[in-house]
Amino acid sequence: MFPSYTIRLATLLLLITMLAGANNALAQSANHHTSFLADQEPAEPLILTKAAKAELITQRFRDALDLSPKQQRQFERYTYSHLCQKEAAASRLVGVSYAQLRLERRYAADLSRVLRSSQLATFYWLRNREPLALFEAPATAKR
């Protein structure tokens, strides 16, 4: 009846037509969702204070490091201090990399007073494995 290339060509054209119809339906669907979202007010960006960041970081490591209540308080205090110093160093333009390195060493020394060696090793292993955006993101000046 029909040569095989004719059947293949008809099949290809049918497939292209179906895909074009599906793309058109997706585009209309996307426009509908866009108009729905355009009616809503934009969400406020999440800005945490340094104290809230320190608390979140402490909560993040509390179970992993098996911190006692006293260690939690000291860990949070040192983390808050580290975040404050890091923000102050970032505001200065000269010697930022040296200041950052010095702050990291100071933070390590502070944590070594609070944590056991196994906890400290676990802290750095987790921090290097899953870096926290909270350490890097800017905070508000409120406490």
Features:
77% helix; elongated; 0% strand; 143 residues; mainly alpha
Task: Give the topology, please.
Elements: H1 4-38, H2 50-65, H3 69-91, H4 96-114, H5 117-129, H6 133-136
What percent of the residues sit in helical stretches (DSSP H or I)?
over 70%
What is the typical, i.e. mean, pLDDT? 75
Secondary-structure element series: HHHHHH
Unreliable sequence segments: 33-37
Please work out how many helical segments DSSP would assign.
6
N-to-C span: 83 Å
Please indicate the percent range of residues in DSSP E strands (runs of 2 or more).
Answer: under 5%
Shape: elongated
CA-based gyration radius: 27 Å
Q: What structural class is derived from the secondary structure elements?
A: mainly alpha
**In total, how many beta strands?**
0
Largest sheet: none
Structurally, the number of domains stands at: 2
Describe the structure.
- With 143 residues, the protein is an all-alpha fold.
- The protein folds into 2 domains: 1-43; 50-136, no CATH class.
- 77% of the residues lie in helices and 0% in strands.
- The chain is built from 6 helices and no strands.
- It has helices spanning 4-38, 50-65, 69-91, 96-114, 117-129, 133-136.
- Residues 33-37 have low confidence and may be disordered.
